[in-house]
């Protein structure tokens, strides 16, 4: 999920729960940051989220994170298994005033499970997530909140990470896949095949690119790092979705159309001019790769390679992590991404990693991944569908 949108969603959810206005975190001064945390901005609303993404990205490209970075994340957990966005004093009890949430918890589970050795912590976290599952099978950002596509997809990733089958995690006979299917738009009308974040007050579904990218990955039973199946080479067309796999393919078709005009997604705050949405574009690339259509995301990945540097510097570790996961999914060189070493830049935002390794891979001149040549698993994306001539080798972690 886009870093900026995640922050807005957190603020919105907090406002709804508290019934009061919440100041924008971007204007908040950075507090004294704890040792082990990635990033220098105020972690009040995204500390656990950005730490989880950073650790997942490092692990994906063969970097062993610093022990104190992993310990910081594990130390954020409450005794009941849940995670809040940030606990300034982990020694302080997690009382009713602490705003725990499904997104922080789901992301932390995925990171700790990927790194290994945290079975007790991830088990407790998943038990808590099960306890706050909604009757429609999904999850909202805050416990008890209406189910949304993004939160439900993050939790699906957490369940998968610990070896559980999401279709067997049910409430009142409904699984998280049932919840996602209810948020899928039909093939006729505006937003054909997309996913909505939530229904509006009248129950209407509106296409949402951010939710669609998350839901494509979630509906396929994958997590924040996605997957890299052999590319299908199939033409994407929206068809009536009677199961989660078709809903995911419909969502992928919507994302291809959304990227077609400018090679990137756009977003805008109320009253503001639309701007390129770098984070959601990276998420869309990863979603298309995970759905088997990485060839259709190559142009967007090249656009990110050319244009995302300033955004990533400002947004910090979560942004670098998103770019790493998307680039890895497309077999772009994460060590020479528009002239920048994304891994080095991510590592520089926190404690020095314990170990770093490299692997060799190939990428063709057009930026299209040659998946069947390298046979490696990717982080959160979908693969390429055709082979072109004139390939050249590029280093790939």
Automatic annotation (TrEMBL):
The keyword Disulfide bond does not apply. Residues 1-26 form the signal peptide. The keyword Transmembrane helix applies. Gene3D superfamilies: 1.50.10.20. It comes from the Bacteria. InterPro entries: Prenyltrans, Terpenoid_cyclase/PrenylTrfase. Keywords: Membrane, Repeat, Signal, Transmembrane, Transmembrane helix. Pfam families: Prenyltrans. Residues 52-163 form the Prenyltransferase alpha-alpha toroid domain. The chain crosses the membrane at residues 370-388. This is Terpene cyclase/mutase family protein. The lineage of its organism: Bacteria, Bacillati, Actinomycetota, Actinomycetes, Kitasatosporales.
């Amino acid at each position: 999920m886009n870093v900026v949108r995640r922050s807005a969603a957190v603020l919105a959810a907090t406002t709804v729960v508290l019934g009061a206005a919440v100041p924008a975190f971007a204007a908040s001064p950075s507090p004294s940051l704890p040792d082990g945390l990635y990033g220098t901005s105020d972690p009040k609303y995204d500390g656990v989220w950005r730490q989880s993404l950073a650790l997942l990205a490092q692990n994906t490209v063969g970097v062993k994170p610093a022990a104190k970075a992993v310990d910081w994340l594990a130390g954020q957990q409450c005794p009941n298994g849940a995670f809040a966005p940030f606990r300034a004093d982990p020694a302080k009890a997690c009382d009713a005033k602490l705003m725990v949430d499904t997104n922080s918890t789901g992301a932390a589970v995925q990171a700790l499970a990927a790194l290994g050795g945290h079975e007790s912590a991830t088990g407790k976290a998943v038990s808590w997530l099960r306890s706050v599952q909604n009757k429609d099978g999904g999850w909202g950002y805050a416990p008890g909140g209406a189910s949304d596509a993004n939160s439900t997809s993050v939790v699906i990733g957490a369940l998968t990470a610990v070896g559980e089958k999401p279709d067997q995690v049910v409430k009142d006979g409904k699984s998280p896949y049932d919840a996602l299917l209810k948020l899928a738009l039909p093939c006729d009308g505006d937003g054909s095949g997309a996913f909505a974040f939530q229904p509006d007050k009248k129950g209407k579904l509106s296409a949402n690119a951010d939710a669609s990218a998350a839901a494509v990955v979630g509906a396929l039973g994958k997590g924040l790092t996605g997957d890299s199946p052999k590319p299908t080479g199939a033409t994407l067309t929206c068809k009536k979705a009677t199961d989660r796999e078709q809903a995911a393919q419909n969502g992928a078709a919507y994302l291809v159309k959304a990227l077609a005009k400018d090679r990137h997604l756009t977003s805008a705050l109320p009253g503001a001019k639309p701007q390129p949405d770098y984070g959601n574009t990276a998420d869309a690339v990863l979603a298309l790769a995970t759905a088997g259509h990485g060839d259709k995301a190559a142009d967007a990945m090249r656009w990110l390679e050319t244009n995302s540097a300033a955004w990533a510097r400002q947004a910090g570790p979560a942004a670098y992590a998103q770019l790493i996961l998307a680039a890895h999914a497309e077999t772009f060189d994460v060590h020479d991404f528009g002239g920048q070493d994304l891994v080095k830049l991510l590592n520089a935002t926190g404690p020095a990693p314990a170990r770093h390794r490299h692997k060799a891979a190939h990428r063709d001149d057009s930026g299209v991944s040659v998946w069947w040549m390298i046979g490696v698993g990717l982080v959160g994306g979908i693969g390429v569908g055709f082979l072109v001539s004139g390939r050249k080798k590029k280093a790939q972690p």
